[in-house]
Structures are given as structure tokens and as C-alpha cells.
Amino acid sequence: MNFALLVGKNDPLSGYFYEYLEKLKLYPSAIIIDKKELSSKDTYIIKKRVGNLLYTNPIEKLNTRSEIFIVDNHNNLETINIINNLKIDFLINGGTPRIIKKKLINHLKIGILNAHPGILPYYRGCSCVEWSILNNHPVGVTVHLMDHAIDEGNIIEKKVVNVSKCKTYQEIRTEVYKSSFELISMVSKKICENKISEDTFLRQYEGKYWEPMNSMKEKEVIKLVENKKYKYLFKINMNDINVDNILNKSIKLQ
Question: Which of 5, 80, 95, 132 could make a disulfide contact with 137, Cβ separation 3.0–4.6 Å?
Fold first, then answer.
């Protein structure tokens, strides 16, 4: 299996995707960098979420073994030509600044893998970590295929993140980011080794979309963690958590 990594120019987290893949001895056939940089707003949001717990790690600063391509837009014909020439089977979203179009997805044997910071289909959309904490639900990561609709592609694998050692909101957010890098790398390895295939992916139907959380509720989330009111801060047996059962009882899918 051949795969490539999609990243935006100077994305502060893009290097982590490569480093976690490298730990598993996985090397993308290509790193395709979109010339569009992360907006100042998105950069601020990342900084607010993790503080100094994750250092800025753009992929451009790494010494990689992959061929690097710089394109004007990930949706352009230029990217499709790279996919065809290198016989790329799937892509990993390592921070594309674009809403990916169906035309690009259709040129891939498997599709585009994305690590979403929430348990799908119960937590689609925005601020899913924050909403999970506020609702006293487990935080988690879902690796799924990207689709034209937000967070509605086929589910490949999901994982509850153990935050029992976290003492602050930023520590929880950092653990979720790390789990995202780890899970998408592990899923990629399974695909490359033919240990999972498309017929094992779970199709999504109904789901719950969450809007961006406002600053007042974000403060509530921070206080919940600081005051140890979030139940998953305490040591628990992760094997005892049936996350789908928990969320299905309290979240109405639409």
C-alpha cells in the first residue's frame, strides 16, 4: 500500500503526524504541502488548547524520507497527478487547510483518513472535547474516512482517551492530540499490512453535530477539570468503558 500525507504550509502540528508514523516504521510516499497557511484564528485556538505542552512542529523543519510536493491547492489537478503517478492508495489528513472535494477522494483506492477528536457519530462537528467534558462523557478519537459532509465518513476505529493523569484542561487536550497522532498511525499500519479492509469500516447514518463552544461554556469546562468534577479524571479500568452504550443512552442522534 502506498500512502501520502496532506498538510498545510507551516502547520504547527503537521510534524507530529510524520513522527508518529515513523515510530511504526511507516514512511509516506509523498508529503503534499498546500501553500495556504493555517489562519491566525486557528493557530490561536491550538495555542489556547495546549499552551506550551506541545511545541510547534511544522513538517518543513523535519528531515523526512518522503518526497515533498508543494501545491497551490490540495483539490487541484496537480495533487491528483501526484496520486496517480505514485499510485497512492490512501491519504492521511495531517492538517489540510481545504474542504476536500469529492473529485480528489474519487481518485483514491481507499480514501482520506482523518482523526477526529470525538467519538463518532455522537460527537460530530466542533469543540467535541469540550462538549464531552461538559456533558461528563468520555473524550475520545475516531479515525474515519473523509466525506463531502462533516465527520460523516465511514468509521474505521475509535478509542477512548485515558485522561486519569490529567490535572488541567490543556493536559486533556494534549492527550487527545497525542492519541489522534497515535491512532491514525496505527490504523494506517493495519491498512498497509492488510489487517483491516474497507468491508470492516462502519458506515455512519444518524449523528449529532455540535456547534463551536462559546467562551462562557469553555470557562465552565476549565473549572470542571480544575475542581475535579469531571468523572473521567479519576483512575478507571478503560476496558470497562462501553462508550457507545454510554453515549447512546444520553445523546439523541438525528
Answer: 132
In the chain, % of residues over pLDDT 90: 91
Per residue in 151-165, pLDDT tens? 889 999 999 999 999
Nearest residue to 16 (alpha-carbon basis) of 141, 160, 183, 150: 183
Q: What is the dihedral of CA 34, 35, 39, 42, to 10 degrees?
A: 30
CA angle 151, 94, 177 (to 5 degrees): 75
CA distance 80 to 103: 9
Q: How far apart are CA 150 and CA 169, in angstroms?
A: 25
**CA 100 to the chain's CA centroid:** 15
> Does domain 1-109 correspond to CATH entry 3.40.50?
yes
Q: What residue ranges in 140-197 does DSSP mark as E strands? A: 140-145, 155-160
Longest dimension (CA), the chain: 55
| First CA to last CA distance, the chain | 36
Determine if the peptide bond prior to 212 is cis (ω within 30°): no
- The domain spans of the chain are 1-109, 116-140+148-168+197-254
